[in-house]
Every structure is written in C-alpha cells, then in structure tokens.
C-alpha cells in the first residue's frame, strides 16, 4: 500500500481532502445535486462517479397507491390520483389503509378496534389497534438481587434487573457500596485515605479502613495561625500542630488610660483552636468556624500616685491607688475666681460643675454668687457709686445729672456726669460759662464786670472806664470822672477804694470853694435849731398808741328757710369737694402710671443707646 499523502477529490468532485494514496477514492457525505438529463430535477443520490442517469420521473409512472399505470408523462407533471382505495399495509402490520389513493405517507395510527390481552394475561379488552393494553396489577416477584420486589405494572414474567444502588456499608465502615444491587458480599472499598498534618503540607495515603492504625505525620513547617494578642510581631513562632496554639508567655505591657502599663503575663485574645487529630473522618463538615478565645481585660491599675483634691489646691495631695476613682476634699477654701472677676469663692474645697458629660463628680457644686455692691472706681472718676452688683469689666457710664453753677453765678447747668468728667479742664471751663456778661461787682469800685462769664477774678479791676459823679464835701459841686481816676485819687489820698461805702463813692474828692463853706455854716445852724425845737430838755419822747376800733355787733334775726338753705349749701359744697378730691386722686393715679411707663420706656431707650446690640 502506498502511504504517501496527497490532496484528492471525492467522486462527485465537491470536496478536497488530504489523504493517503491508497485511500484516494472516497465519497463525501453531501448529495450529488447534479442536474439530471431532464434539465428540471437534480440527482438526489449520494456522492458517486459516472453519469447520474435519466430522471426517474420520466417514462412509465404509477399513481400513489400503485394500482394505475401512466406512460409517456413528462417528469414535471404530477401523476393524477386514481380514486381507488389505498389499501397499503399500515405500520401495525395487520391492517391496510382505508383511505382513497393519496400522496404522502399513510396514517400512523391504526384505529381499527380489536380485542387485545395485557402482557401478564390477566385482562382482555377491545381497544384501537394502535394502543397497548396494560393492567394495574404490580408484579410481586423478587428480582435477581434477592432483596427488592419487581413492582412493575402488568409484568410479563421477565423481570428486569434491579436498578437500585446496593448502599450497604463496606468493611471499611466509612463508605457504602456504590454498585447496583447484587447478591453476595460487596467488593472491598476502592478509596484511599490521606493522612496529613494540620497545615496539609506533610501527608501520605493509606487504603480506606487502615487509617485507624496510623499517626499524624510530623510537620517541620511553622504554624500558620497568627496570634491575636498585641505581641503578634515579637511572639516566638512554633511548629505545625493540631489543637490550640500554646499561650503567649510575654508580659502584657498594655498601656492604661492613665499612662501606666500592665505588668501581668499576656492575657489577650487567643486564636481559634485547630481541630484535633481524628483517625475517623467526619461525616459532615462543621457549618460554623471555630471562634477565637476572648482575652481578659487588664486589672485596674495598681500603681500608687499623688492625687490632688477636687479643688486642685497645692500642698493638699494624697498618695492613692491610680485606679481608685475616690475623690476627696481638703479643708482649704475654694479660692476660685468668681464670675464677677473681682472676688474669690469662700466655700470649702469642692469640685466645679462642668457642662461636659464626660466628667461628673459627686462633690461638684457651683461656686457662690457675688452679691456685693460694685467697688470699682469709675473711669473717668466721678462721685456717684456704680448701681450694679459686683461685675466683671468696666462699669457702665454714669448718666447721673450733676449741677454746676456758671462762673458768674447767674445760672446753674445740669450736665451728665460721664459727659462733664470726660472733658479736660479747658473744656469744662468753656462748658460752665453761661455766655452772658459776668455781672460780678469789681473789687475796687461799685461797678459790675463787663466781660463774658469767666472763671476766677475779674480781669483789670483798676482800669474801670465807667463814669462816676464826683462831688465836693458839701455836695454842691459835682463833676464826671472815670472810675479809674476816682480810684487813683483815693489811693493818692491814702485810702483804699475797697473801704469806701457805695453811697459815698466819689464824695469829697472835689475841694469846696468859699460859697460852699458859707452855705455849709448856714445849713449847720438851721439843723441845730430844728433839733432844739423838737427835743426840749428833760422830756423824753413818748410813743403814741393807736386806738382800737370798737366793733359793733348787731344782732340779726335769721329765718328758718335761711338756716335750711345754708345747711344745703354746706352739704353741696362738701359733696363737690369730695368728688373733686376723688377725681384728682384718680387722675393723679393714672398720671403716675403713665409717668412710670414713660420712665421705663425712656430707661430702655437709654440702655439700648448705651449697649447697642451687635
């Protein structure tokens, strides 16, 4: 045989394959599909060589049932039906088709009614030919396995083999027989059992049933279970094992919240224990994983520390166990600065109340409230005390009214204390001036100061330019001098102008002439004469008494009608007076209420101007 390979075509020439030379002639699986000689139909044969032949539909043809023959019909003309009964044998093999000549296959179900028996022969019945008759009786014979009954309905006696699984426990006591149900002993267990270390790296296999005599292999690998305590990075590693890992031998060294560290042996959480080695495999895997062993909390801190009292007073510390939350109070005063910012709490040492929920003390209480009056000095200084109780910060501005007379004393100014005291000395002098003439008497003369209201002594009292009438001693001669010349004349005469009475200012500065002297003598003599006439010697003047006028009372007769009318007038007068008093009291009360409301509103407006809202 030639084994040389080459590419060859099939017999119809449609498919090319690489084949050996000895198998170069082959047929493909496709139909021929070449056009026949009629030119209308294709070849429906499989792959073949040579000519396809004539069209099978040409020449002698029969009707579908084959009873009538037609000759010389074209291949593309359908054969007519003969109209006779088909009479072809049906699929049942006993009856024929009762229909007329037809194209296509005959009916598949034979509906001829026949008498049939069931397979077990216990029942007979007339049914259509295409149906099978089966009764409801179950076969009670035992199958070949000798364990199970047939239980097939309408069994003909030839029971099928048992289809159930044997499912008897094998001698290994671990598995059941998977073979179909059979007679006799089951075969040995064909499975192998793997015995391994805990991590599975070291293992070996033994026949199932012999693992009870084996021990787990010793594995040199490290245990893969990571410690859960805080020493996982420094803990000494150990080898692969079954069961729980050994406990950590290091010191706990966990830091308390106070800053100290636990000095006990490690008591943190331990990883979940690995399953113990068992020779008998588990039937079912555990549905839940092993839980880790929780660690215990560190005991309270046993260190001794110095602890302050609740008031944090220096020198009142005590030695106490760090974890002991007990609080104590010393006998010192609290000394906390009060809310006023000026005084200190005088209560016995106590803890301060805090709004924080994280801190609460049994000894916590609020400091006392300062109810003392304000003792601060106001700025700028003023004589009025602060109306508030002791408070932090600066005192409010003083709005009390103070009275200050002007420099000349002509009027009194009512000023706010804060306004007046915040001015400097020059501004205060300007504010107190009334703006009018001074009107104070000059010290050296009888005239008033012509300057605008000013502080201190009047300026240049020796330069008064007012006109003064100067007379001689007998007041006969008179002239007009300036006031400053009059003062100069008094000084030249050796007298002080201040000591001269107002009525005699300028009198006697002019010298008298001869006429003045003669007139003075005549006048003096006349005066002496008048005195002598009015007051004779030895008699004293007696004061005259006024006569009292005698009042004459006349008795008048009063009628009864006049008495009644007089009494009525008195009653009406009393009623009118009472009504007037009640009306005045009512109006006065309402007026006081209105005045109180007005003053309260004014006070609120004043407070808003002083302390505006931000």
UniProtKB/TrEMBL annotation:
Q: Which SMART domains match?
A: ZnF_NFX (SM00438)
**Single annotated GO MF:** DNA-binding transcription factor activity, RNA polymerase II-specific
Record-linked InterPro entries: NFX1_fam (IPR034078), Znf_NFX1 (IPR000967)
| UniProtKB keywords | Membrane, Metal-binding, Repeat, Transmembrane, Transmembrane helix, Zinc, Zinc-finger
For the region Disordered, give the residue spans.
Answer: 527-551
Q: Which residues cross the membrane?
A: 571-595
Secretion signal span: none
Which residue range or ranges hold the NF-X1-type domain? 38-57, 92-112, 145-164, 172-191, 235-250, 258-303, 340-372, 382-400, 445-466
Q: What are the Basic and acidic residues biased-composition ranges? A: 527-542
Q: Name one Pfam family in it.
A: zf-NF-X1
Q: Which GO terms describe its cellular component?
A: nucleus
Its family?
A: Belongs to the NFX1 family.
Q: Any idea what this protein is called?
A: NF-X1-type domain-containing protein
From the broadest rank down, the organism's phylogenetic lineage runs: Eukaryota, Viridiplantae, Streptophyta, Embryophyta, Tracheophyta
């Amino acid at each position: 045989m030639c084994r040389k390979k080459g590419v060859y075509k099939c017999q119809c020439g449609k498919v090319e394959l690489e084949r050996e030379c000895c198998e170069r002639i082959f047929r493909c699986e496709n139909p021929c599909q070449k056009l026949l000689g009629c030119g209308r139909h294709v070849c429906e044969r499989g792959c073949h060589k040579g000519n396809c032949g004539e069209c099978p539909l040409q020449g002698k043809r029969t009707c579908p049932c084959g009873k009538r023959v037609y000759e010389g019909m074209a291949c593309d003309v359908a054969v007519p039906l003969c109209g006779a009964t088909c009479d072809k044998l049906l699929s049942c093999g006993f009856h024929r088709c009762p229909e007329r000549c037809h194209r296509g296959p005959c009916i598949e179900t034979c509906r001829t009614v026949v008498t049939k028996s069931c397979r077990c022969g216990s029942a007979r019945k007339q049914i259509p030919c295409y149906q099978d008759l089966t009764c409801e009786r179950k076969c009670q014979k035992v199958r070949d396995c000798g364990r199970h009954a047939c239980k097939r309905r309408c069994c003909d006696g030839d029971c099928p083999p048992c289809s159930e699984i044997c499912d008897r426990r094998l001698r290994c006591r671990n598995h059941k027989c998977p073979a179909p149900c059979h007679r006799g002993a089951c075969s040995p267990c064909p499975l192998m059992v793997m015995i391994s270390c805990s991590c599975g790296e070291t293992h070996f296999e033994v026949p199932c049933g012999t693992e009870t005599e084996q021990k787990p292999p010793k594995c040199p690998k490290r245990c893969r279970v990571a410690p859960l305590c805080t020493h996982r990075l420094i803990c000494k590693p150990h080898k692969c094992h079954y069961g729980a890992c050994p406990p950590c031998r290091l010191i706990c060294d966990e830091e308390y919240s106070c800053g100290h560290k636990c000095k006990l042996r490690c008591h943190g959480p331990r990883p979940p224990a690995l399953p113990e080695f068992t020779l008998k495999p588990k039937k079912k895997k555990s549905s839940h994983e092993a839980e880790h062993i929780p660690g215990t909390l560190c005991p309270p801190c046993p260190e001794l520390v110095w602890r302050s009292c609740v008031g944090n007073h220096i020198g009142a510390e005590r030695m106490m166990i760090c974890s002991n939350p007990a609080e104590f109070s010393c006998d010192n005063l609290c000394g906390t600065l009060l809310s006023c910012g000026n005084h200190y709490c005088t209560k016995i040492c106590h803890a301060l109340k805090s709004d924080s929920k994280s801190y609460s003390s049994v000894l916590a209480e609020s400091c006392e409230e300062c109810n003392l009056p304000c003792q601060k000095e106001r700025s700028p200084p003023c004589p009025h005390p602060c109306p508030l109780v002791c408070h932090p910060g600066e005192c409010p501005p003083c709005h009390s009214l103070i009275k200050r007379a002007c420099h000349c004393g002509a009027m009194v100014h009512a000023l706010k204390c804060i306004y007046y005291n915040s001015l400097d000395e020059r501004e205060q002098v300007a504010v107190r001036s009334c703006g009018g003439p001074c009107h104070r008497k000059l010290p050296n003369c009888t005239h008033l100061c012509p300057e605008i209201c000013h502080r201190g002594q009047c300026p240049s009292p020796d330069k008064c330019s007012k006109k003064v009438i100067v007379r001689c001693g007998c007041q006969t001669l008179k002239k007009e001098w300036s006031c400053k010349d009059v003062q100069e004349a008094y000084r030249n005469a050796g007298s002080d102008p201040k000591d001269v009475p107002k009525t005699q200012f300028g009198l006697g500065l002019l010298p008298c002439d001869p006429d003045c002297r003669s007139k003075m003598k005549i006048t003096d003599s006349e005066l002496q004469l008048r005195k002598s006439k009015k007051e004779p010697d030895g008699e004293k003047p007696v004061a005259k008494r006024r006569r009292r006028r005698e009042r004459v009372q006349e008795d008048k007769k009063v009628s009864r009608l006049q008495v009644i009318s007089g009494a009525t007038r008195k009653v009406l007068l009393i009623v009118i007076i009472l009504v007037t008093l009640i009306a005045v009291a009512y109006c006065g009360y309402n007026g006081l209420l209105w005045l109180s409301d007005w003053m309260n509103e004014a006070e609120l407006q004043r407070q808003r101007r002083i302390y505006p809202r931000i």
